[in-house]
Amino acid sequence: MNARPVKHSVTLKGHRTSVSLEAPFWEAFREIAASEGKGINELAAEIDAARGVSSGLASAIRLFVLDHFRRRAETG
Q1: Phi then psi for 52, rounded to 5 degrees?
Q2: C-alpha distance across the termini of the chain, in Å
Q3: Report field, pTM of the whole predicted structure over 0.70
């Protein structure tokens, strides 16, 4: 498994920005977005709006993905 981050662009509030995540996080993020019937830009915008200023967007997405799968594991 390659642990090097992969850079992708997302659009937030009409502006493109780059986010670097490891490939497994991108795959999981896309899976979550699809399961919620959203595009990655929409889901990234929601995460961005909720994250506050104490963390970067990439970190916030990683934590969102981790939390999503933890909650899914708890509910079976």
Answers
A1: 75, -170
A2: 27
A3: yes
Is residue 5 within a helix (H) or strand (E), and if so which, with residue range?
strand 5-12
Q: Is 55 left (phi over 0), alpha (psi -120 to 50) or beta?
A: beta
Structure tokens at 73: 């594991």
Domain that holds residue 9: 5-75
Instruction: Write out pLDDT tens, residues 35-56.
Output: 999 999 999 999 999 998 888 9
- Whichever domain contains 19, its CATH number is 1.10.3990.20
| Number of compact structural domains in the chain | 1
For residue 32, what are the contacts with CB-CB under 8 A and spacing of at least 6?
Answer: 43, 64, 65, 68
